[in-house]
Amino acid sequence: MEVYLIRHGIAAEKGTYADDEQRPLIKKGQDKTAQVAQRLLSVGLKFDLLLSSPLVRAYQTAEILQQASLAKTIETFAPLKPDGAIAEWVKWQQQYQVQHPDAKIALVGHQPDLGNWAEMMLWGAIQGQIEVKKAGVMGLKIPPIGTPIARSTLFLHVPPKWLI
Amino acid sequence: MEVYLIRHGIAAEKGTYADDEQRPLIKKGQDKTAQVAQRLLSVGLKFDLLLSSPLVRAYQTAEILQQASLAKTIETFAPLKPDGAIAEWVKWQQQYQVQHPDAKIALVGHQPDLGNWAEMMLWGAIQGQIEVKKAGVMGLKIPPIGTPIARSTLFLHVPPKWLI
User: Fold this and answer.
1) Chain B neighbors of A126, CB-CB under 8 A
2) Hey, are the CB atoms on A156 and B157 less than 8 Å from each other?
3) What pLDDT digit, counting tens, does each position of A16-34 carry?
4) Cross-chain Cβ contact B157/A162 below 8 Å
5) What is the ipTM of this complex?
6) pLDDT digits over A100-124, tens only?
7) Looking at beta carbons, which residues of chain A come within 8 Å of B119?
8) Which CATH superfamily is domain B2-162 in?
9) Phi-psi region of B128 (alpha: psi -120 to 50; beta: other; left: phi over 0)
């Protein structure tokens, strides 16, 4: 199974919305995300499923990926919110993998969470050494059986500048 | 300082040369590496220096990067040979950094060494979780003072497929 971790695009500044969860993508964020989506398509990528943080800026990012035909379905996944628990994702993934051993799925979320989740899947500990830009994409291979924690491999980590 | 780790391009098959160090790039490897070099240029990258493994397939890769005007100078650096000691690189880097605090340099070498060196600079331990394809490129930011070991950050890891 391949898992792509995708950070939301450029959103309205922090503090401009009373409820931070409602901050939307700004025009530039929509446009850059759409360009990134086109590049993912042109490399031949398709996702079996998009799991998205329920926050507006993430869900809108997932919608742009969906509109580019990168995936048919978006599901909101609460553990992708800031400070969400990777253990919930691992539980979900272990069940999903049984039915979809060759799936490619994308998780759309936030920093520093996505970098931390990647570190957990690669090394089993968080050291904060992975930078992820807005609309940046990481790709990890997950082992076919057993936990992904400290057992996955990194094959892709690409900022939008390199995709546009 | 930014350090780019670049794996050599596709070379003649293992075992086809009596001396493995003499294996050259094949035509396809030259062509793909040249395409990768053009993409690095188009993103605006320039290296202050290319350090290359002395093995033919690595040095030829460095020459292709140089011919694309990504760098003026190639120096061979013996610790970039397979199983080379990262401690030698750290010693070199600590001295170089004093004179060139904002340098961008590229190390051209082999797998699994480059993935291992990246893991050492990011996490301080080797777990073999970073895949690097031939002509693939990783980018790390090195802290301005002190050892890069377990203190660098990863901002780029991109296979050639995503560059050409």
Assistant:
1) none
2) yes
3) 999 999 999 999 999 999 9
4) no
5) 0.94
6) 999 999 999 999 999 999 999 999 9
7) 123
8) Phosphoglycerate mutase-like (3.40.50.1240)
9) left
